[in-house]
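User: quick one - fold this with glycyl-adenosine-5'-phosphate bound?
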Amino acid sequence: MDMDKLVSLCKRRGFLFQSSEIYGGLNGFWDYGPLGVELKRNVKEAWWQDMVRGHDDLATLSGAPEPYEMTGLDCTIIMHPQVWKCSGHYDLFHDYMVDCRESKKRYRLDQVRGRWLEAKGQRIFVATQQGGEEGEAETQQRALKFFNLRGKDVDQLKWDGPLVLLTAVPEFSRVLGPDAKELGTLTPPREFNLMFKTYVGALSGEEGAAFLRPETAQGIFVNFKNVLDSSRVRVPFGIAQMGKSFRNEITPRNFTFRSREFEQMEIEFFCHPKSSPEWYKFWRDRRYAWYLSLGLEGERLRLRDHDQDELSHYSCGTADIEYAFPFLPPGEFGELEGIAHRGDFDLRSHMEGKLVRQGNELVVELDAEGKPRHRGSGKDLSYRDDLTNERFVPHVIEPSAGADRATLAFLCQAYTEDEAPDENGKMQQRVVMKFHPRIAPVKAAVFPLVKKDGMPEVAQRIYRDLKKSFNVFYDEKGAVGRRYRRQDEAGTPYCITVDGQTLVDQTVTVRDRDSLKQWRIKADDTVAEISRLIAGGELAT
Ligand code: GAP
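Assistant: Sure. Structure tokens for the protein plus glycyl-adenosine-5'-phosphate:
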């Protein structure tokens, strides 16, 4: 699939716009348009319904060791600064960046790759931000330019190995930066904290400094005791939260994939340390199945267990759910969600202070004077099982998803070019967004075939009936074929047409977006039929 086509459809049909576009846009920030807001809201609602509201606290789900409870929270974006000191974000939430003295551009170290080559007696490393074949083509082009060679002289470039990350290059004096014309213009890597800083109240100095949350998770941990004390949940249980998070990404890119303001859908699942490996496996599989259930394709979706050396400082096991986004080189996948076994790291950090690993132990980090480097709340965040009387600090399994990344994956998956007959039965190319009906922004469109003979009145009645339950669109302008085509691009799964026969026998046609099948139903049954179809019912033949 061509990503440029999707990006232009998103703008043309009102899924996504660049933020502040009339002022030239702001890099890393995106607005959802009229169709996009419905799509993203449906993704979030499907998650909340499937994980929280619709969860059966009494049943043992397949793969779960026992029944569990689910509840939710909605916490503030700005929290006490100590939260981020104890969570580790203040000290550790950074990326390495390199600056280019020549182009004045800034890059994330782990997003720059390149290839070594020799030509005209000189050995250099040509850097690029592209991977795969695109990266190879770009480095070749730039190497020819650097050595003042023409395309026909390409044999003079003696490449030494494939594209490798810039992290593998110890120093940069022989490096041709991604946008540079001269060698050695990249600065040594520097740390860059990704949290956005702000100031609370009238205090403008460090006393008033605070951060926009870089994840929703910490709001859950610091409210763990409040939830325990105010509801009747017992371990094992999960707390879910969705909302905005902010990261000052060095190089936001790939449409909404890496933004500076985005939404997360996170669950912190609290369980007994002994059963935590089983719960980890349960959540891994359950979250993977969720994406499949909403239409992501098995071949483009994968569950990848992290290697031991990839695990975060707190994690005993992590898996990523990844999708083969079309903007990535073939064979590469991008993260949609991480499922992490976090042990008791978070609750203990908020009790005792910032923890660090010492051998196999997590211990409070001390400063030069032997005092905790970042003091915890001092509150007891352990749990007492009232049946066994056992007291323990629960272990946490964290399925942490991005609402914008999931929405982007559903957009990529939905984009399809195929053929459909026009009014005269002639096959024509069409663009169709094949969203799962549950997340489709508009569930049904209602058309009177013509704007006369009482057809609009019947169509408007059906539209109003459907509106009570669904997001529905009414359209009476232009040829009906063109109206179908517009709905195909919006991803509307069903179109209902009122025609001459409706006036005779009170039936209407229903058209299925994907199969293009059409069938007649009683006009009075439209709400029931659309409800049945959206719930996953079979199409009539
Ligand atoms: N609490 C754990 C945590 O935040 P993460 O892997 O940093 O883990 C979780 O983020 C999810 O949030 C990611 O899998 C991704 O879907 C989403 N996400 C993270 N950074 C993002 C960004 N800059 N733009 C869009 N989504 C992002």
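One thing worth noting: The mean pLDDT is 95.
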